[in-house]
Amino acid sequence: MTHRIQNFEALAGSHERRDALSIAEAGLAAIDVGAALARALRIEGDDLLLQEKRYPLAERRIFFIGVGKCANAAAQAVERIFGDRLEGGIAFDVSPLEGTPLRKVEAYVGSHPLPTEANVQAAKRIAAFLTGRSEADLVITLISGGGSTLLCLPPASMTCTDETALWNELTARGATIQDINTVRKHISLLRGGGLAAAAYPAEIVSLIVSDVPGNDLGFIASGPTVPDTTSAADAEAILARYGIAPAANLELLETPKEPRYFERVTNTLFLTNEDALAAMQHEAERREYRCEVVDDRYAGEAREVGHAVVEKLRDAPAKTVLLYAGESTVTLVPLETRTPGVLAGSTPASLTGRGEQYGKGGRNQEMALAALNELREGELILPFASDGRDNTDCAGAIGDDVTRAHVFAHNLSIEEYLDAHKAYDFFAATGDSIVTGYTGSNVSDLIIAMKK
Asked: What 8-state DSSP symbol labels residue 351?
């Protein structure tokens, strides 16, 4: 059997571990973008069927634009589905294309979470590719997490370096993803409905994979095909609220507001963490666990989320699985300023200022490490990133009795590794990291908590 978790058999040292890993794989299978597209897009004669709506294909040119962490997987699926009907397209992903080579779709790789000139050049190529499309043309888009950073197409007065500086300042001050993306919408020509405007007057079918809690279409990848409800004045107010003085060359653009740009755009919420949670719940119940989906939009410091999960698990009956989805944070505190007994996270610090005092992190691995000391016998936690990249080449980690045995065998200090944010190094030493490779999907982070 081929596993989505590459080190499944190495990790499956107990019955409970095998169950937890199988539940995680069920979630990953449910958000497989290629398989989901094959299920959702059907061609009947000269019509495309999507959610019971028909789109005529006869005598039309069909194009594809994929942006974000799911772009390559979507491009491969779209080429299979449409075959020779597909005229061409662009896939702009954060990772190189793997597997089947693309025949008609151009593949570009950009940086994430901070933009580089490669992002700007690929975004320019997308804008040029869409320019001049006719009313008869049909553009299929797949928008996914990571798309905000990729679609960096600033006005002439700015560069990608200016956007990086803004991102650093906003994150250092604890700005929400909604606030960050509001600002980013107004410093790019393709965000905030800009991609739809670039493709006008072509018809657009936009399939959106959500990595944003609450699934607000306007904030997933900064809503490139969605009418924007924010203004340049809103972006200016956000900078003022966080005490950020605008640089002299900052130019806040107004996003496209004319209704005509969106009259022939169909935005469809295509995959969300709810799809993963439903599949995981089904697999847990199939394995005869009592299963509860506790939260589909958790947030907060990773170690505090881990603590809350363990507290709820402690009160649960035997043979229980608790499921969560969302996104935590890890706030760094310089070691020399940390007060004994005070958790890291009490003082904001920019992720770009890690310094050598910090090891490789990953919010899911940090959560598992923080929870490890609190777990009781027979309890397990498995937090993991649905895209397979927990700020490292690991997706997450597993914490349970087996992990504690590994900690004892290697004479490791949980507190020392946690204080230094070295969860990656910790689990690399114990052998309890979750390795999936890049999944080609992204619907937020997921947590499995289990009681024997």
From this structure: G
Per residue in 364-390, pLDDT (tens digit) is: 999 999 999 999 999 999 999 999 999
pLDDT at 1: 78
CA angle 394, 439, 1 (to 5 degrees): 90
How far CA 313 is from CA of 25, 306, 307, 376, 387, in Å, comes to 21, 11, 10, 10, 26
Looking from the CA of 1 toward its CB, the CA atoms found within 13 Å total 8
Beta strands in 327-405 (DSSP E): 379-385, 396-397
Nearest to 296 by CA among 444, 422, 436: 444
- Within 10 angstroms of residue 372's Cβ, the number of other Cβ atoms is 26
What is residue 203's three-state secondary structure?
strand
pTM of the model: 0.90
Dump the DSSP string for 176-189: -HHHHHHHHHTT-S
d(CA 261, CA 203): 10
Looking at residue 228, the DSSP 8-state letter turns out to be -
Residue in the block written with tokens 């599949």: 279
Edge-to-edge order in the sheet of strand 53-56: 42-44, 47-50, 53-56
The β-bridge relationship of strands 320-326 and 42-44 is unpaired
Residue 354's pLDDT is: 33
**Cβ burial, residue 297 (10 Å; 0-12/13-18/19+):** middle
CA distance 417 to 3: 30
143: left (phi > 0), else alpha (psi -120 to 50), else beta? beta
Query: Are 348 and 338 in contact, with CB atoms under 8 Å apart?
Result: no
pLDDT for 43-87, tens place per residue? 999 999 998 899 999 999 999 999 999 999 999 999 999 999 999
Residues linked to residue 326 through DSSP beta bridges, in sequence order: 298, 445
Instruction: Go through the domains of the chain in sequence order and give each one's CATH number.
Output: 8-30+274-451 (3.40.1480.10), 35-271 (3.40.50.10180)
Which stretches in the chain have pLDDT values below 70? 333-359
Angle in degrees, 0-180, between the axes of helices 363-372 and 423-430, rounded to the nearest 10: 70
What is the C-alpha to C-alpha distance for residues 241 and 304, in angstroms, rounded to an integer?
Answer: 26
Q: Which tokens belong to 338? A: 């940390």
Q: How many whole angstroms separate alpha carbon 220 and alpha carbon 328?
A: 17
